[in-house]
Amino acid sequence: MRKPRDIKLQVNGKPHDLHVSPDASLLTVLRNDLELNAPKYGCGLGQCGSCTVLINRVAARACVIPVGEVGQRFVTTLEGLAEVETLHPVQTAFIQEQAAQCGYCLNGMIMTIVALLERLSDPTEQQITDALSGNICRCGTHVEIMAAARRSVTLLAQNRAQA
Questions:
Q1: Exposed/middle/buried for 67, CB within 10 Å: 0-12, 13-18, 19+?
Q2: Does 19 share its domain with 75?
Q3: Which H or E element spans position 143?
Q4: Residue ending a domain, choose from 27, 49, 80
Q5: pTM (2 d.p.)
Q6: Number of domains in the chain
Q7: How remote is the C-alpha of 38 from its chain's centroid?
Q8: Which residues on adjacent β-strands are paired with residue 59?
Q9: What is the pLDDT of residues 78-137, one digit of tens each?
């Protein structure tokens, strides 16, 4: 690990000035320094998806990204999706479909669906499956997760129509 240095991060719309090693993982900094606990430590290898965040609205595995490489890009965690007292439509869909059992994978599943819907407003079943293929759910709630993903498409479309 290199010596700590001053690093500026934009997380959930807020600037943060930190004094950390640039080699520290983004996940470690988010959880330990910024106390944002939605991204989870799962495998530490970027393979399970529990640590997924959005960097400039693209899904990224925070456990394998050195914080020093993030720069001034915008990081969004699950905590940053909701607006004031309104959940993000994907969060709402996951609640409505009861798509959680232990909840450990939930952060990665939701953030991955949010990123997918940033790119595609009406993804096919196969596109949803492909997007989620790198996210592991050990409890087996895949049926509910897929239903939540499909409901997310509907809720986002309704939100756009109302806007």
A1: buried
A2: yes
A3: helix 142-162
A4: 80
A5: 0.94
A6: 2
A7: 8
A8: 54
A9: 999 998 889 999 999 999 999 988 888 999 999 999 999 999 999 999 999 999 999 998
